[in-house]
Amino acid sequence: MIRIIIAARLRKTLDKQPEAVRLKSEKALVEVAKTFGDPHRHRGLGIRKLAKRSYETRVHLQWRIVLIHDGDSLVAFDLMNHDEITAWLRGR
Fold first, then answer.
1. Which of 20, 13, 3 is nearest to 75 (CA)?
2. Backbone angles phi, psi at 75, to 5 degrees
3. Which domains does the chain have, with CATH numbers?
4. Residue 14, pLDDT score
5. Which of 70, 73, 76, 80 makes an SS bond possible with 84, Cβ 3.0 to 4.6 Å?
6. Percent of the chain that is helix, strand, coil (3-state, to 5)
7. Residue 20, Cβ density class (10 Å: 0-12 exposed, 13-18 middle, ≥19 buried)
């Protein structure tokens, strides 16, 4: 099981979301912690590699959590939609 660190940015974004999205986000992060590193189990969670150390996991039809792999842990960076993730990747 990999350790997940919740970034302040994600906490702030989730505070603005409806309770249903917050609960789905929490559940997705628990599942990612259990299965990260096992590609066969990634499919059901919608984990996808974005760049060298960054990943996304599907939370809701519209929302994804961006994860940054930091050695032995994952930093849950922020909750974004597809367009926001594309812009974030271009800006890095």
1. 3
2. -100, 120
3. 3-91 (3.30.2310.20)
4. 97
5. 80
6. 45, 30, 25
7. exposed
Q: Report d(CA 48, CA 65) in Å as an integer.
A: 11
Summarize pLDDT for 23-45 with one digit per residue, the tens: 999 999 999 999 887 776 656 67
**Cα dihedral sign for 38, 6, 87, 16?**
positive
CA distances 46 to 28, 55, 66, Å, are 10, 10, 12
What confidence score (pLDDT) does residue 75 get? Answer: 97
**Calpha distance 2→73 (Å, rounded):** 6
- The mean pLDDT value for 9-23 works out to 96
Structure tokens, 52: 């060298």
pLDDT of residue 38: 75
